[in-house]
Amino acid sequence: MNAPLSPRQNVLRRLRKDRAAVIAFWILVFLLAMALFAPNFNEYTYRQQMLQEDYVNMPPRVQALKWIPLFNGRAVLKARPLSSLSDTAKYPEGCVIRTFNERTNRGITVVDAEVDYYLYKGADESVNFWFGTDTLGRDIWTRVWRGTRISLLIAFVSVLLDLLIGTAYGAVCGYYGGKRDLILMRIAEVVQAIPNVVLCTLMILLMGGGTGTMIVALACRGWTGTAGLVRAQFLRFKNREYVLAAKEMGASDARLMRRHILPNAAGPIITRTVMAVPSAVFAEAFLSYIGLGVPAPEPSLGNLLAEAQSVLGLYPTQTLFPALIISLLMIAFHLLANGLRDALDPNEY
Amino acid sequence: MLRYVLKRLGLMVLTLFVIMTLCFFVIRLMPGSPFDDPENSPALQALLEEKHHLNEPVPVQYYYFWRDIAADGYWGVSLKIEPNVPVWQVLRDRIPVTLSLNLMSLLIAIPFGILAGAASARFRKRLPDHLIGILTVLFISVPSFVFASGLQYLLGYRGPFAIIYNSTGTPGEKLFSLLLPVLALSFWPVATICRYLRGELLENMNADYMLLARAKGLSEAQSISRHAFRNSMVPLVNVIVPLITGTLTGSLVVEKIFSVPGVGGIMTQALAARDYWLVMAVLVFYSLISLGTVLLMDLLYGVIDPRIRLAGKREVTG
């Protein structure tokens, strides 16, 4: 016979059966590890501009993945005079891979040339920008992962704040009830009615952009939802027999709340918290995008996307990598949250 | 009912008051003056500050602020973007653009979302449900601005569609150039409606009356469309508020990406230029839309469900 399972083991067992949630979990572990360590994988820093070497808008190149067109370090130079291509001072030996689209423009024969961009810029095999460089000659690999780190930091800390404030607030409202509850909930309702964009904008205008400000700005409305949830659970459980029994035996208010009532609210709170992380990632990216986020040169996923957007037509890879990472992050968090919700509340279909 | 309406209305006015007060003090308490400009002589600066009452104590300014709005409907003028043009006049041409962009994406999203949700519930745990499920997660998770960039590159730069908003063309060309932003904004609402409707439908399909519907000889499709579907539509009101505010938020950035001359673009500019009263007007606009939607939905709820009306409030969700 199997030993009986604790509730936690039960939830974990159900969660492990959800293939999507398990994959999402490992994707998140991978992204988190990359965010922590990947910025140090190469010698470039997030703010170092390689302008002397003119390494601006370099295409991505990874030696081991050269067979993939995305990572072969080649680029197309448009409308170059055909005669100039043999000038080795400008086009080093062997850098022109192929020419196409030959046409005559005002009597001069011009072609589009696919070149080995690294050779073209005079960089040897040892120079590799895995994700390329941006318009200021900064290494995108380092910036993307550092940006991921900052976005995640903002999201995690703001959600943690939201959780702490919301739980305490909701617990007080639900446990004591009465006039205190009425007034506190009215305040929460007013805060909740202010649109997120408006509240965040005001907070950031007031305190100036920065990582700390972003955290506070994102947390200052999120807690109302948690508070409502915790309050509802407290109202439901505070008059249960076991709570009354503990009270009769002299347990203090704080102990009753912490030990006897709060654990009942754990399930919905966990689900909500995990759901709140992708929302915070989105909100951060969104605010950075409209110029309210972390100030330059510090990267964040939103900053990177906003910077890359202006050269999207010319250098799409600069948008591709941050876009992929933010999408992957959001998808993984959603899947994990869905899995957790189902595992914690098996009654829902 | 009247009491309920008044209560909701009162809360809305209170919230708006709080927002505007917050706006005012945030703007006023920021260091520096909007007229700090080396080109302005001290005398000119003093004159400008006097004109805008900036030389007086903040509480007095706060009084003037409300008096101007109440007496003359004067919300201030744009300071930097379009100097000396009243803020609402700056926004007058832009609000319809933003609203039509958002309404179009919602109008496209609603039928597709309902179709997808119904199909998903009908073919539960079979291939269509799984496919729709994957797409739903994708569309809910991936931010609208990522979709916007992707569409702009793949269909705009690499395809036949307009890359940015065509503000000088014929109405047809304008509409055509709005296609990509509308599309980018509609993915999220489609998925949200679909997921919500699927859940509701599945719940209703297990209800007793569905058994009766099938017992009296209705086909599966008939019983779903006539019974389960109708009952599932009522709670759909729940998602409308987040849908509208969410799309509006997304359109801030999507407008910027496609250079759509809407409120989003002006907000970004006004924030960058610290054009305070314009920022305030934009924020009030967003608040009004959001509060108005919430109020409308509360009232609708009151009409739909008399229990809410009598109790005077509903549990705040989401």
In short:
The complex is a heterodimer of chains A (349) and B (318). By secondary structure, chain A is mainly alpha-helical. Helices cover 60% and strands 8% of the residues of chain A.
Helical content band of chain A: 55-70%
Number of domains of chain A: 2
Assign the CATH superfamily of the largest domain in chain B: MetI-like
Count up the helices of chain B: 15
Indicate the structural class of chain B. Answer: mainly alpha
Helical content band of chain B:
over 70%
**Fold-level CATH name of the largest domain in chain A:** MetI-like fold
What does this structure look like?
- The complex is a heterodimer of chains A (349) and B (318).
- Chain A is mostly helical and 349 residues long.
- Chain A has two domains: 7-39 and 138-344, MetI-like (MetI-like fold); 63-120, no CATH class.
- Chain A has eleven helices and three strands; from the N terminus they run H-H-E-E-E-H-H-H-H-H-H-H-H-H.
- Chain A has a three-stranded antiparallel sheet with strand order 1-3-2.
- Chain B has 318 residues and is an all-alpha fold.
- Chain B has two domains: 2-93 and 262-317, no CATH class; 95-255, MetI-like fold (Orthogonal Bundle).
- Chain B has 15 helices and no strands.
- Chain B has helices spanning 2-29, 42-51, 58-72, 87-92, 94-122, 127-141, 144-157, 171-177, 179-205, 208-215, 220-233, 237-257, 263-273, 276-304, 306-311.
- The longest helix of chain B is centred in the middle third of the chain and has 29 residues, at 94-122.
- The two termini of chain B are 25 Å apart.
- The chains are: A mainly alpha (349), B mainly alpha (318).
- The A-B interface holds A 189-190, 192-198, 201-202, 205-206, 225, 228, 232, 278, 282, 285-286, 289-292, 305, 309, 312-313, 316, 319, 323, 326-327, 330-331, 333-335, 338, 349 and B 11-12, 14-15, 18-19, 22-23, 26-27, 29-30, 137-138, 140-143, 145-146, 149-150, 152-153, 157, 163, 202-203, 245, 249-250, 252-253, 256-257, 264, 267-268, 271-272, 279, 283, 286-287, 290-291, 294, 315-316, 318.
